[in-house]
Specification:
This protein is α+β, with helices and mostly antiparallel strands. Helices cover 66% and strands 9% of the residues. It folds into two domains: 177 residues, no CATH class; 186 residues, Histidine kinase-like ATPase, C-terminal domain (Heat Shock Protein 90, 2-Layer Sandwich). Strand 1, helix 12 and strand 2 form a beta-alpha-beta unit.
Length: 383
């Protein structure tokens, strides 16, 4: 749902790159103004001769430079400056100065700081030169003020449009970022649910699958039936817990649950039911173990128990817990099978999740074959 509301990254990047381009309504207004200006100048050309016709032609050229703002503000401003200069050479730059004053809106809407400052300086110089007599006749004080007022009004309009565009663009970017955060929260919630199901439900289903194979054995049937009933009840309980947390917990959060002593006790019972002798060095209920460390270690014990029940060969399983002032470690040893199990596939998800949990708190993790044993080792800092 959220993913569908998001725009592709390339589209967002393209919108950011078009920050100096007019939007569609602005383009329409500019094209209408250009057409109107050219039509008026064309009418002057049709009804005049000599210098007036030349001035009208130069006015058309100046108006057409506005079309370049649809492409590049820098090139358009340079072309406008050339048109104004040619109007001075022709002897009357009144129309060109008016066009330059109107173009202030486009420069302030689209231009960079350097372009705006340069254009403002060009306007001031042009008005001063024309007021001093460079042209057909000097400008009266009232005409100078007229050009200044037009430039100020046009500049105000351009600045207002620029600020409006910036606000709209900022809002759009914030909406995209909010949608991205929402998408990440949903994905985090899905990962949490998948992880909880893998850590708990898969473990219990593994026990069920193993004991189902023993139901044909009269001697082990009663014990296997009890193990299956217990695993099914625990699976349902864990499933209800996951559903409840998914409904009530804030998105993207993970409520830590786990008790190391209980996890080792439960695993020991399951190993004993599967025919493994179990031993444990160290106290899993030691009060020096921080709660956050205990949660991670309990998860490692449960995931390791799932793997041992699936793949271990006959022999003892040993837990060793070491506690110091700086770290808490656990080592789980289990016998390797004489013949690798091919009927129970492995995706490596469990090992990856154990490693992620340990490395995520700057701990150390390893798992692999050492001699005739499979050894899982984790060490987590306590500070």
């Amino acid at each position: 749902m959220v993913g569908g509301a998001l725009r592709p990254e390339s589209t967002l990047r393209g919108q950011l790159a078009r920050a100096e381009v007019l939007n569609r309504p602005e383009r329409i207004v500019l094209v209408v103004l250009i057409i109107g200006g050219v039509a008026l100048d064309a009418g002057v050309i049709a009804t005049s001769t000599g210098e007036d016709r030349l001035q009208a032609v130069l006015s058309i050229a100046t108006t057409l430079t506005f079309a370049l703002y649809l492409w590049s503000p820098r090139i358009a401003t340079l072309a406008l400056g050339v048109a104004v200069a040619l109007a001075f050479v022709a002897g009357d730059a009144t129309a060109a100065l008016l066009a330059a004053a109107v173009a202030t809106a486009l420069v302030l809407r689209l231009g960079t700081t350097g372009l705006i400052l340069g254009y403002s300086g060009m306007q001031i110089i042009a008005i001063v030169l024309y007021a001093l007599g460079i042209g057909r006749s000097p400008l009266a004080t009232g005409n100078v003020l007229f050009f200044v007022i037009i430039a100020v009004i046009a500049g105000g309009i351009g600045l207002a449009l620029r600020m409006s565009y910036a606000r709209g663009h900022r809002l759009e970017r914030e909406l995209v970022e909010q949608a991205e955060h929402e998408r990440e929260a949903v994905l985090a919630e899905r990962r949490w649910i998948a992880g909880e199901l893998h850590d708990s439900i898969a473990h219990h289903l593994t026990i069920v699958a193993l004991h189902v194979q023993l139901l044909d054995d009269d001697a082990a049937r009663a014990e296997s039936q009890e193990a299956i009933r217990g695993a099914a009840r625990k699976a349902l309980s864990d499933l209800r817990f996951v559903i409840q947390m998914a409904e009530e917990a804030p998105r993207g959060t993970e409520t830590p649950v786990g008790d190391l002593a209980d996890a080792i006790g439960e695993a020991s019972s399951e190993f004993a039911a599967a025919g493994h002798a179990v031993s444990c060095d160290g106290d899993p209920a030691d009060e020096r173990i921080p709660r956050g460390v205990e949660i991670i270690l309990a998860r490692i014990v449960r995931e390791s128990a799932t793997d041992i029940l699936k793949y271990a060969g006959p022999g003892p399983v040993h837990f060793a817990i070491g506690i110091s002032s700086e770290a808490v470690g656990i080592v789980i040893r289990s016998p390797l099978p004489d013949v690798p199990r091919r009927d129970l596939p492995s995706t490596g998800t469990g090992l990856n999740r154990m490693a992620e949990r340990v490395l995520g708190v700057s701990g150390r993790f390893s798992a692999g074959e050492v001699g005739s044993e499979w050894i899982v080792s984790a060490q987590l800092p306590t500070v």
